[in-house]
Amino acid sequence: MTALSRRGTSPAPAARKLAVDLGDADAVRAAVAATRPEVIYHLAALSSVGRSWDAPAQTLTKNTSSAANLLEAIRRDSPSARVVWVSSCEVYGVPETLPIPESAPIHPANPYAVSKAAGEMLASVYAQAYDLDLVIARPFSHSGPGQRPIFLLSSLAKQAAEGRRAGVARLRIVTGNPDTRRDFTDVRDVVEAYRRLADLGTRGSYNVCSGHSVSAAEQVALLSEVIAPIEVEHIVDPGRVRAHEVMDLRGDQARLRSDTGWEPVVPLRQTMTDTIEWWVERLSRPDAE
Hints:
This protein is α/β, with parallel strands linked by helices and 289 residues long. It is 42% helix and 18% strand. Strand 4 (82-86), helix 4 (111-130) and strand 5 (133-139) form a beta-alpha-beta unit. 38% of the residues are buried.
């Protein structure tokens, strides 16, 4: 197994680690040619919706150019590889119906979603033009230990961990819009879904999701149960409320379940608990964020 990243790091201990910038077409092609992979999981992207509004040109340029560079390398140097192309539920935008099926139209509602839709469409074009063995995964929100705090659940968990370490009796938890709802799955379940898609998926798109959505306010309520007896005060920061927000993203997982037998098994409470514990340990290190 070979893991490519800009820093050449990976949490997978058995992986061969290569430092490759997907924006460098020659470097990408050299890496693919050297490793000749049988299965490729493409997850690399600037992945924050919020940050995509702050740097839309950078998000679009980097995500689409890296997609093009990787597809060119695959079709030239590893055309028989099975490719699991990880897109995003954000490509759906404001849904016409809930839960959202894979057949729903694509209406991206933020710069990140536009970049992922473009990459997904380009991947489909390459699959058709060069007969690539490519399957598209559209993950809905997922979280777990190790996630950066620019994402909601990890942000909540970090705030809780800071409160625990400080020994406070009452903790202010800050979020954006409390009414937005997202379909959360534990990252460990999501990884299993990708593995099954590599083995059993057929061409086309698959939602990777739980089929249930929870609001930001409900996540804060769950957090308060997990960290009791610390009392939680939920504060809504207007600066974190996005002007153009999709209020509910909940997916239909029927195709993935039917084709691969996948079901999520880690409950949201466990994801929250494990992520808080990870942050407690992380913040105890000298190099903590």
